[in-house]
Design brief:
The chain is an alpha+beta fold. It is built from 17 helices and 34 strands. The protein is elongated, with a radius of gyration of 32 Å. Strands 16-15-21-12-13-20-17-18 form an 8-stranded antiparallel beta sheet. It has a 7-stranded mixed beta sheet with strand order 2-3-1-4-5-9-6, with helices on both faces.
């Protein structure tokens, strides 16, 4: 592959709601640029983009796909993203690698959930944005209504750049709005002045002359690119699939007006700072880049069956050759590149070197992870990490066989490396293996892939809630352990005072308050060990005990039968005896839940939260969204992802984080205790 200068490279990410036609347009691009002899089809399963079995079957993208082509001397890196928010992590990665974002909108269905999310994410990343209205060759497409909706939702900056001669089956071509041909309709001509106004807004001198009545129409073309990068113009371009109408015009616009890889002249880095008190923290600061310094960032990790772990990187400046050494600026470690590759769907083309603007993969790089910064050693500060959303939907999984059990951890580690929005852990209390993802669909697809590709099968269920146990009042009692069964016996007696305790750090406090020599000092650690073992196993439901203090103030010993194990047993039983008298109660984890929804769903969300033991903490507006904040038990929101989707027609978002442990209402507590007792009895049987 011939090397390209950064100014001749266009990195473009394809965004939009599922079914809006992103992948189809990528296939059209590849054909128009001569990278494919025929146009691939998602519908027919022949797309060059969606090639995985589950993507072909479901006719929808699941992964981020990287392809490239050359058009009019420009190298295009095309990044096709899934349209479902379940796979939002792929979009995060793609946006960091690109300069331009094409947000696709179905001409028939209009603005949808992921249209808004794609816009917000692209704007936050500072990308040049355009809307591509697809399927304008379908019947009953109301283009004026859709353009109005785009402007009302995203701003007056959204102005048509071209429009179809007609909508529906008779579509033959798209017409330039800036230079409409003779015979163009008033509908097309009507957007010319708004387009010029959006362009001149990016240049103060040009805008003043325009406002004074000067004819600037001959000058505006040279300012289109500036207006797009400044955000005063967000072009709206049209595409009809039959006859590939609008594809060439879209490619021409990207070549002529959208930013190249050379437009990136500074990078946001993570910098350590100290305040006057000497306390250190971090901040994000822009730093100019030297074109001779190699700086790249890992945007995605892929585990290849033959090449092993591959780090996909975007090069921001400089160049590097295969076999060269590098520095991981995020961790301060060095390494050496092996072979370098360019992706074209599932194909990998080996290259000798890469330079600014390139998106490439390095093979067998075990020590590089997604988001880390790779340099030649002269650049020391890491580029701002990718901000992936927190995985909040959980499933408990259990291997179906011993063979599955032996391989599952390794396979899950692989999926976690490839997808930062997926994670797994062993719950130390419930002893369950729990996986976390963006939604039930996200987790189900990953688990299906695990079964299909790695032959590892699991059963799933909702995970058990990690409750805690504590007390509400102080008590004092004793317990005597005595065992005689021939030969050496066991004897220990302990006296406890048990109190509620809220220490700053320790969740359990043991106080040695012994006086005199009723108990030999050597057995005090045995008593503490017995108490701490009860804190781990619990009394009511097998949940850990917290916020308890035990004062060991008296007891009895035996010169022969007094033993370490005897005092551990006595301590456990005395702990249990005191605990059951001290107003025992269950504590449940609560979370701070923040829900973002269109205002029309606020009432439904409030009713849902109130009926699920939630306490609304506040409601306010953020742009066009209604924000509802609530404190709610984790047990009540285990299915919130699907519930929210059903309540808001897929238009709601949410985030949650651990808040605290709160007391479980008595009626709910008894249900939990009874369920635990039933499960424990069943295990004994």
């Amino acid at each position: 592959m011939a090397k390209q200068k950064p100014e001749d490279i266009r990195n473009v990410v394809f965004l939009g709601h599922g079914g809006s036609g992103k992948t189809t347009v990528v296939d059209e691009f590849l054909h128009a640029a001569g990278a494919n002899s025929r146009i691939g089809s998602v519908k027919d399963g022949t797309s060059l983009v969606d090639t995985a079995d589950d993507e072909v079957e479901g006719k929808a993208s699941i992964d981020l796909h990287l392809l490239h082509c050359t058009y009019q001397g420009k190298l295009f890196h095309l990044l096709d993203t899934p349209g479902r928010t379940d796979f939002i992590g792929q979009t995060v990665a793609a946006l960091r690698a690109a300069e331009s974002a094409l947000i696709h909108v179905d001409g028939y269905t209009g603005i949808q959930v992921n249209t808004r999310k794609a816009w917000k994410m692209a704007r936050e990343e500072g990308k040049a944005v355009a809307f591509v209205v697809t399927k304008v060759d379908m019947e009953n497409v109301d283009l004026p209504k859709l353009i109005k909706a785009l402007q009302e939702t995203f701003g007056k900056c959204c102005v048509p750049f071209n429009l179809p001669d007609v909508t529906g089956a008779g579509l033959a071509k798209v017409l330039s709005v800036l230079n409409p041909p003779e015979g163009a309709s008033d509908f097309v001509k009507g957007y010319r002045e708004p387009l010029i106004e959006s362009i001149v807004e990016s240049n103060e001198e040009l805008m003043m002359r325009y406002l004074e009545g000067a004819d600037v129409s001959a000058e505006v073309v040279s300012h289109i690119g500036t207006a797009i990068q400044a955000g005063s113009l967000v072009p709206v371009l049209c595409y009809g699939q039959k006859g590939s109408v609008g594809v060439k015009e879209l490619l021409d616009a990207l070549v002529g007006f959208f930013p190249s890889a050379a437009s990136i002249r500074s990078l946001p880095v993570v910098r350590k700072v100290e305040n006057e008190a000497g306390e250190s923290s971090t901040e994000i600061a822009p730093v100019d880049i030297d074109s001779n310094t190699f700086v790249a960032q890992v945007v995605k990790t892929v585990i290849d069956e033959h090449k092993g772990r591959m780090a996909i990187m975007r090069v921001f400046s400089g160049s590097i050759v295969a076999g060269a050494t590098y520095t991981n600026a995020s961790r301060g470690r060095g390494g050496k590149f092996g072979k370098l590759f360019k992706f074209f769907g599932t194909k990998q083309e080996e290259v000798d070197s890469v330079s600014a603007g390139d998106i490439f993969a390095a093979a067998k790089i075990e020590e590089l992870s997604t988001g880390e910064t790779v340099t030649d050693g002269t650049w020391k500060e890491p580029v701002r990490p990718l901000r992936f959303p927190m995985a909040m939907v959980a499933l408990a999984i259990k291997p179906k066989s011993r063979a599955d059990e032996s391989r599952i951890s390794q396979v899950l580690q692989r999926y976690m490396a490839e997808d930062p929005t997926f994670r797994f852990e062993m719950d130390s209390q419930t002893k369950e293996m729990v996986v976390y993802g963006m939604s039930e669909l996200h987790l189900n697809i990953l688990l299906q892939r695990m079964a299909r590709r790695q032959n590892v099968h699991v059963d799933t269920k909702l995970p058990r809630i990690s409750y805690r146990e504590t007390i509400t009042r102080s008590v004092s009692d004793f317990y005597r352990h005595k065992k005689q069964s021939g030969g050496s016996g066991e004897f220990a007696e302990v006296h406890f005072r048990m109190n509620p305790y809220r220490g700053k750090e320790d969740l359990f406090n043991f106080v040695d308050a012994l006086r005199g020599d009723n108990v030999r000092r050597q057995f005090v650690p045995s008593v503490e060990k017995g108490c701490r073992s009860m804190c781990e196993t619990g009394v009511l439901t097998g949940s850990p005990v917290i916020w308890v203090e035990v004062e060991f103030f008296d007891g009895k010993d035996h010169p022969v039968d007094g033993k370490d194990m005897a005092f551990q047993k006595a301590a456990r039983e005395c702990f249990k005896k005191c605990f059951l008298q001290a107003g025992p109660t269950l504590l449940e984890p609560t979370v701070n839940l923040e829900v973002s929804i269109p205002p029309e769903f606020a009432g439904d969300i409030s009713q849902y939260l109130n009926s699920h033991r939630g306490r609304i903490q506040g409601m306010d507006h953020q742009g066009e969204e209604q924000i509802v904040r609530a404190l709610i038990p984790l047990a009540e929101v285990q299915t919130f992802s699907s519930d929210l989707r059903a309540m808001t027609q897929g238009q709601g978002n949410y985030s949650m984080e651990f808040a605290s442990y709160d007391q479980v209402p008595s009626q709910v507590q008894q249900q939990i205790i009874d369920k635990y007792a039933k499960e424990a009895h069943g295990e004994e049987e």
